[in-house]
Design goal:
Blueprint: H1 8-23, H2 45-58, H3 65-74, H4 80-93
Helix pairs in contact: 1-4
Length: 101
């Protein structure tokens, strides 16, 4: 489990915004937490997997993809804000994320 500071969410948000701006070739000013990853940015699930790997390395997370998949099936991610919130849960709970309601 990684240490969480007050600035962690802002750091995660910045990484996510920059990632999608670059990968989807859109101006970062077009991205906000309500932006739909698929319909607004033409993003895909592979991008989500890339982000998971980025955050696993950055925060030294011990979390398996199958665990994330189990969580995502029950808690789909459609917007940038949902993705940020899910990433925060992964940082805090790692593999125990599936135990969350």
């Amino acid at each position: 489990m990684s240490n969480i500071t007050e600035s962690t969410r802002e750091e995660v948000k910045e990484i996510v915004f920059n990632f999608f701006a670059e990968e989807c070739e859109v101006d970062i000013s077009r991205i906000n937490e309500s932006t739909n990853i698929i319909t607004d940015l033409e993003g895909d699930s592979l991008m989500f997997l890339e982000l998971i790997e980025i955050f696993k390395k950055k925060y030294n997370l011990n979390i398996e993809l199958k665990t994330i998949a189990k969580y995502i099936v029950k808690h789909p991610v459609e917007t940038i804000g949902q993705l940020i919130d899910t990433q925060m849960l992964m940082i805090v709970h790692e593999n125990k994320i599936v135990e969350l309601a």
